[in-house]
Amino acid sequence: MAGTNFSRRSIRKGILRIEALVVPPLANNVYILYEDGSDDALIIDVAQGANPLFERAKELEVRPSMIINTHGHTDHTAEDGLLRKMTGAKLAIHELDAYRLALDDEASKELGIKKEPIEPDIQLTSGQEIKFGKQCVLKVIHTPGHTEGSICLYDEKDRQLLSGDTLFQAGYGRVDGMGSDPDTMKSSLKKLLELPGSTDVYPGHGGFTTIQSEMWLMEMTE
Questions:
Q1: Phi/psi of residue 70, each to 5°?
Q2: Does the predicted TM-score (pTM) go above 0.90?
Q3: Is the N or the C terminus of the chain less surrounded, counting Cβ atoms within 10 Å?
Q4: Is 179 left (phi over 0), alpha (psi -120 to 50) or beta?
Q5: Tell me, what's the pLDDT at 4?
Q6: DSSP 36-98
Q7: How far apart are CA 169 and CA 53, in angstroms?
């Protein structure tokens, strides 16, 4: 997945618009979410994409009010602090991964990323609802396994899931790192597979998919 080419894709389903950008260091998918008719926006993960995310938000004439980390690995969070300074947005992460924003980890060491320890503004919990725009709501689904505090964000109304590094197209996140757990990952995947099959899935790396397309995972989770 290594690569530095910048690419972008625009998605619209219902009132929610999703701008998906691919940025370094590991071809990370990062997202801008906003609602038609509102300038309020969310950023999902940053990676090393602070500048392209900031510039695209300006082009769209939206103002990010919150940056949400799907988990605390450095390849997803490297420029959190920079984008927070650029936008004034609040930085959010699940409470069990909050400590990772102040630590070097496998990703920072392997990629040679020098990270500045930061503290989140908001610590998320399972089941929490994140409201933005006039009508948009994302539900926090706690999906530990890749890390203790990994989350997915679910748009129940239009059946859209931002899955971070929990669920990929034809795969799932690594479970051999600090704080990983294979059995917990199985439980988290089983939880996601209970969502409607038509749910669109936008992961932290790689192509987009649907829940129905990943039902092969049922064999692993039984």
A1: -75, -25
A2: yes
A3: C
A4: left
A5: 42
A6: TT--EEEEE--TT-HHHHHHHHHHHT-EEEEEE-SS--HHHHTTHHHHHHHH-PEEEEETTTG
A7: 24
Q: Classify residue 80: in a domain, yes or no.
A: yes
Question: Which pLDDT value is given to residue 60?
Answer: 96
Could you tell me if residue 1 is inside a domain?
Answer: no
Domain of 98?
A: 7-221
Separation CA 77–CA 201 (nearest Å): 21
Q: How many structural domains comprise the chain?
A: 1
What CATH number is associated with residue 90? 3.60.15.10
Residue 23, strand partner residues: 28
Under 8 Å between Cβ of 57 and 32: yes
Q: Are 124 and 92 spatial neighbours (Cβ–Cβ below 8 Å)?
A: yes
The answer to whether residue 145 is domain-embedded is: yes
C-alpha to C-alpha distance for 158 and 169, rounded to whole angstroms: 20
pLDDT above 90 for 111? no
